[in-house]
Amino acid sequence: MAAFAQRLRDLRPPEMTFDLMAKVALCSKPTLAAAAAGRKMPTWSVTCAYLTACGVSEDEREVWQQEHAIVAREHQAWTRREAGGGEGAVEASRLPGPEDVRTAEDFARALDGLRQSRGLSFRDMERRARMLNLPRALPFQTAHDALKNGRPSEHTLRTILAVCRVPGGDRAAWLDAWRRVVAQADHDRAVARAMHVLGRPSDPAEHNKAIEMLTTAMAAYPPDDPRHRSLADHLATLLTTLYPRPEGNSAPPRRTYDYLRDQENEEP
To answer: How far is 29 from 26, CA to CA, in rounded Å?
Structure first.
């Protein structure tokens, strides 16, 4: 609501006083001033009078009307939360935040909770992205898929955060959560590929791909992370199975792709 009021204030030319606006719009001066103050949500009729006084065209007023409807729903959702509930309310205490995210399912719940807390439908998100002239559009289906599967691209996530008016200082936590989800997905794909290769040990191209995926996934976690150790164990098993050491060879276990590459380079 504060951002909507700021847009109204930015719209009023410096030379346009509220006295003059009241005469042009046939609306009282205090009512127009209150609409721009942002202390309460103005009705659409008051907003329309304000826009008329500022010379906004009919086509532009249609865009403003869509934005007004979205902001009004956001304000209603906030009012219900402040009042302690009510039908359709989303309780802030029950909303998962980015700090709670560990999996794509967690991320989907957190993003959808963010959307609901703003009182936005998927169509509202699409309209707002268009009205805000964001670098990337947010089609209805893209928003729906991102909030249902928890795997948006980074660009889509940034657009969602802008549409939901997440303050700039809070967006880093959401991006960190997204990176955790991506790392977990890389982990799962790498393990699945390793298991696949172990079942088909005769395809060298598959070997290299699986080794590369496991090594890349390991790099996303610190050495003391259980997922790092799990990936290292899978890599060791894969290398030992695919490239067994000659009997009596005392070389250390082949646990990294770099070690394997060095061994291959030493072959005549």
So the answer is: 9
Q: How far is 117 from 110, CA to CA, in rounded Å?
A: 10
Cβ–Cβ contacts within 10 Å for residue 167, how many? 7
91 contacts 81 by C-beta, under 8 angstroms = yes
Q: What is the pTM of this model?
A: 0.54
> How is the chain split among helix, strand and coil, in percent rounded to 5?
70, 0, 30
Match 């219900």 to its residue by tokens.
Answer: 80
Give residue 187's pLDDT: 77
Question: Alpha-carbon distance 150 to 152, whole Å?
Answer: 6
What pLDDT does residue 178 have? 93
Number of alpha carbons in the 13 Å side-chain half-sphere of residue 177: 27
- b/e sequence 122-139, b meaning 16+ C-beta within 10 Å: bebbbbbbeeeeeeeebe
CB of 34 closer than 8 Å to CB of 108: no
Backbone Cα Rg of the chain: 28
199 or 108: whose pLDDT is higher?
108
Q: Are 205 and 245 in contact (CB under 8 A)?
A: no
d(CA 196, CA 42): 61
Q: Identify the pLDDT of residue 94.
A: 55
Provide CB contacts within 8 A for 194, sequence distance 6+: 210, 213, 214, 234, 235, 237, 238
Among 189, 174, 187, CA closest to 107: 174
In angstroms, the CA 159 to CA 126 distance is 10
